[in-house]
Write a structure and sequence with these properties.
It is globular and about 50 Å long. It contains four helices and five strands, in the order βααβββαβα. The relative contact order is 0.15. The chain has a five-stranded mixed β-sheet, sandwiched between helices. The termini are far apart. The protein has 158 residues and is α+β, with helices and mostly antiparallel strands. β4, α3 and β5 form a beta-alpha-beta unit.
């Protein structure tokens, strides 16, 4: 299986939309109190704005001409103050491998690409958020060497 990873371009929008839908549908299923159903969770305009932002990066994994995975990232600068040290972080906002292509090493290839890309940017860390209920994602991220940094907690009042 010849997996290639490349920078996304505006022509990738339609093919990427099904991957964005898979991620969004998972969020809606897990937390319908926070996420609303939407067949177009990422608009074409927003997708293109991310492509045009020098601090945002989208890469796609392909097999032949088919897009089978996507990762969306954003560089952020943490400004030093009396509480925290300055640092540069690459945040993974979204990562998805097509349902039919999972467990074939595509996600691991994408993450290795992200780690190498982050190193080339000289960021201090690569971080992401993951739902506590998304056990398979948590195990996947652990399998590529990521560890839990912090945990958000809540109490729902309404």
């Amino acid at each position: 299986m010849g997996i290639s990873i490349r920078k996304a371009n505006k022509d990738d929008y339609e093919s990427s939309l099904s991957l964005f839908r898979q991620v969004h549908d998972l969020h809606v299923c897990e937390r319908p109190d926070l996420y609303r159903e939407n067949s177009t969770p990422v608009s074409e305009e927003f997708f293109e704005s991310q492509l045009n932002n020098i601090k945002q990066h989208i890469f796609v994994a392909t097999i032949g001409t088919e897009i089978v995975g996507i990762v969306v990232m954003k560089e952020e600068e943490i400004i030093e103050n009396s509480f925290v040290k300055a640092r540069r972080v690459l945040f993974i906002n979204s990562l998805c491998v097509a349902q039919a292509q999972r467990k074939k090493g595509i996600g691991k290839r994408l993450m290795k690409y992200v780690f190498d890309f982050g190193s080339s940017l000289k960021v201090d860390s690569i971080e992401l958020g993951v739902s506590e209920k998304n056990f398979s994602a948590i195990e996947f991220y652990k399998s590529v060497g990521m560890t839990t940094k912090s945990r958000k907690m809540e109490i729902i009042l309404n």
